[in-house]
Amino acid sequence: MSSKLTETEAPAATIRKAGRQVSQSEGLIFEKSAPGKRGIELPPLDVPAVDPVAALGPEFARDHVDGFPEVSEIEVIRHFTRLSTWNYAIDLGMYPLGSCTMKYNPRVNEFVARLDGLASEHPSQPADASQGCLRILHDLQKCLLAITGMEAVTLQPAAGAQGELTGLLMIRAYLESQGNARKKVLIPDSAHGTNPASVVIAGYEVQNIKSNDRGQIDTDHLREYCTGDVAALMLTNPSTLGIFEERIAEIAAILHERGALLYMDGANMNALAGVTRPGDFGVDVMHLNLHKTFSTPHGGGGPGAGPVLVKKILEPFLPVPVVTQKEDGRYALEHVRPKAIGRVRAYCGNFGVLLRALAYTLAYGPGIRQATEDAVVNANYIRKQLEESFDLPYNLPSMHEVVFSDARQKKFGVNTIDIAKRLIDYGFHPYTTAFPLIVPGAMMIEPTESESKEECDLFVDAMRSIAAEAETNPELVKSAPHATRVGRLDEVAAARKPVLRWKP
Amino acid sequence: MRYLPKSPTERREMLEVIGVRSAEQLFESIPEQFRLKAPLPLPGPLSEAEIIRYFQDRAAENARGYTSFLGAGVYQHLRSVVTDAMVQRGEFLTSYTPYQAEISQGTLTAIFEFQTLMCQLTGQEVANASMYDGSTALTEAVLMAERITGRHRVLIARSVHPEYRQVLATYAKNLGLAVEEIGYGESGQLERSKLTKENLANVAAVVVQSPNFFGVLEELPGLADAAHAAGALLVTSVAEAVSLGIVRPPAEADIVAMEGQSFGVAPSFGGPFVGVIASRDKFVRQMPGRLAGQTTDAAGRRGYVLTLATREQHIRREKATSNICTNEALFALVATVHLCLLGKEGLREMAQQNLAKARFAQAELEKIPGVKRVFAAPSFNEFALEFPRSVKLINAALLREKIIGPYPLGTHYPELTKRGLVCVTETMPRAEIERLAAAIRRILDSPI
Questions:
Q1: CA distance A449 to chain B (A)
Q2: Sequence-ordered list of residues with C-beta below 8 angstroms from that of B253, at least 6 positions apart, any chain
């Protein structure tokens, strides 16, 4: 057995977290298909069969679905199991994606979401037969109100972005009821892309505002921009730099003086739960991302849930239906609310996600503060140990995440994406690259509370080692990853001549 | 706390490295007056066993063990344990959006397969990686039609799911989009006579659902011709996707907005489900949501990436085609695994069983004196019946027999009081259909 390291491979000794392993090759399911195979058998039909052509008429009847796969059960199992091994996942290790809060997804949440009597329930069944579901929603509402210090809530939005839109529509309806919906929404340059996109759908114009040299809202600048046309400021707090807005009270006061509202993007609530409440520091409307702070699995891109929490003045505008508890203790869905903005999604939102978030909250109870503390400790522990190796463009205290830049590695021709790709070889998912936009070459790291000291140490070692490689062997970093099934994929070709489906 | 992997000693060591005495100190950037002094008044902490007990107690307060004849946008279909076993693999369940393609090929390949399956089912050329659900997919399809045509008026059939129309109304209100409704005729289909040249002038899209909310199939080729003649698009919503196993696909539509819940996704009190938008290649740059595309690496190996991202909010911000970011990837995977298991023959057989059982139920119920079918046009697994009594009263009596009865159409259609929508899928045993018929007969026989 002789293994000679190629030039682009790192010495195995420096990569402690991951080793190599054979991974199964697998084609597309369509390429395995052969006529006559199937993976599910149905119980026999216990009523007389009906001929579709006769029953529907030839104009409505369809023959078979062209190109549809025909495979057996074991082939389906092997196919998707093999595919799964090509993914990184939280269950495999740290996922330091800044702003994404990739924390442990408790397994008990998966179990309870599948219980007969919960997973089986139809959203249109009578309230009398849905008391359990309605109570789950109501209990979650109470927990979220306690954690945020807000006064009313809707659980309907399907994800954070839809929560943003819902909150903005409520702001618009409220201001309209005051006589003027106004025209603009202020958005800091460090904001998530969903913020401006949601503003447009709510019928507002985006007014970008610059952060100051500390990465904070420039209050003088805010005063200047906060004219009578401004409906709201959409603020992420802590910001996407992981820094708390120290002048939050002043920011809220400036807006309120001028009749505008403060919207908080709750994407970074993982830094605050149990420590401080947005309702106390002047926030009028906010959304939460339950697939971040409240541990529901990201599932390769979704589902999420984006509850919106508001102050009393906005309660009349909540989307319908609203989950309420009646005097007799029974739960109900209130559909008739004259000032409501309408509906943003069918039914009561992503119930299965909401249910998991409640299971998470119940697991911690008041101890949720410990999770927040551990998340902030992890971020600061990593920050402290990487400050020597990487450029820190904003050095205010970090909360749950820290943003470095690739400024030092750039000198050797290595950028944030190269370092991120090299992390893959070290057995880690990359951090968030190139965001927030105010940091050129951003490296945004959020470990969450789910990481042990050992895992944080491995990450620090990996990052230091890559920093050294960037100086001594930049090509190694620039051509990473080396240990994956496929190398860097040609995204330009993918977009220029899109192939978006399999064809025979 | 079992989810937190640090010992007290490790916490201390980490604080020492950071150079602070306590974790409190790390929160000093939060103004003092806003820092909580007392623990939050939250229930818990609960152990795993207590959490399970809490949710089992809630499940017992629902309709567990009841037989339900509700459809109306959410359908109870056969699901295989294989699907859940695949989806619960941590590598799928606990992975992020596949932006880092090299370590996300599992998710990306599955999305590419999902997109292909959705194209095959709908007769369209391109499908996205998922939307939140059928209601928001329809709304996004309408906004897409608005972008494509540059027109700001849509005609939507009243027979489109009422809650889907409500969602569209919420979005349309501030976008200068005029939404006008078209009624249904005696057949239950859209009233074609309303699609006049004058009425179609400056219309971005004619929006229908098939099978529509009453379970009735719409004649899409004719509707497409009428819309296209006026320069409008045909947007078609599909809420009961299993129908596509035997019903002609909406190939004439320009945009299809589908709810994929029927493909292996539990009703789960209304979500999470899986929406999808499918359309023509030429409109792909106006589509909302993520798309996976095929490409190669430097060594020529096939792989998949998220592509055409310049449509999306994280690149284009306020100029994006939509604000959608998180989608329903895990449930797109559920649908993909489920459809691979069913395959060509299984999907067709499942759809045929729905048709047969619904026809059987319809015949059984129509034997009851005073119970009549409402609409004449062909339907799939749902049909509207007229009863001699209020549907809500009948349902209250049925509930005592652990039957959840027909969906009361009067809720959203004042002209359809005493009409109820009955849904029968392949999961409904014949004996339960007969029990429903006997119960309704008995209820109608008894004095009010």
A1: 7
A2: B122, B124, B220, B224, B234, B235, B236
